[in-house]
Amino acid sequence: PSAPPSAPPSAPSDVMQEASGDPKPAQAPMASPPPSPLKAPDRDLKGLKELSEWRRDETKGEGQPKKRKVGDLVAAPAMAAPLIVEESIRLTSSKLDAAPGVAVGDGGKRASSKKGWRTARTSFGVVTGTYACEVKVERLGKTGHARIGFGTYQCELQAPVGYDKFGFGYRDRDGRKLHDAMASCPEEYGEAFSEGDVVGMVIHLPKKVGEAEAEAGGDASGLEAPPTPAFGQVAPGSKIAFFKNGAFQGVAFEDFGQGYYHPCASLYTKPEEDPAASVVFNFGETELKFDYAGELRRKGFADLADDLKPIFDFKLKYDSALVKQRARK
Questions:
Q1: Looking at residue 172, what DSSP letter applies?
Q2: Are 266 and 117 in contact (CB under 8 A)?
Q3: Of 52, 224, 283, 324, which one's alpha carbon is 20 to 30 angstroms from that of 175?
Q4: Quick one: how many helices (H) and strands (E) in the chain?
């Protein structure tokens, strides 16, 4: 007798279900992994970086300053609770604040260099108020020179302060003052200073009448950064003055453009100089060596003396829960 026909190969179960009209059983969706509490989405990190840099965005030339808006920022779970912290003014080794070849030490108070002209500036600047600090010229050696002053974020770091229109400087070798030195000659001002001298610095930036402005450096705890003054709009009544070993050298600059002004120090020396040229700032974290308020009163500037504070008294405030991934270290 002939062998029974072989059975056809069985169809897959899903095909049989479709053929019989029975519904296909639903597969359970795969659970997505929980979000990491240590990392925010890339879009959020970009917003955080912008937030951390708003205080540096100063307008070049004409026009309104650009605002950093972070209203659409979605905070990561670990960043939800606000934590307001304060930052003290200091020098930093960031490439944003110190030229290549400048070494920063002593907790952000000392700057040294063995290069040509190099500048170091503080981590943030002041925009309103009357503040003082001082700089000891620690070492210049046989070939060194120094310039001390204030500059905005746009001032050139691979040049001495006062080289461009964004800086105001006081020169060691002849006591002259410099501003936009590319386009104008240094002007007679005060006494020369040298190694071992202490140069006092005072800046007065009046508040803008009729408008609420951010205090020095601003407050980054809100959803929108305060407006940055457009450089070039004159701040009437603004003044910068210098002192040599406590002696008032006069008002060096006045009625200059609005902006965030950082204390700056510039050094020059030849590479073979050893050790390097160096200066040490005292922002007021310890008592200033000289009584600048008293000297201002004796010279007829009681209005400046009454409001004068060490620049260390100002603290930059920001929400670390929003600025956890700060762009500047």
A1: T
A2: yes
A3: 283
A4: 4, 16
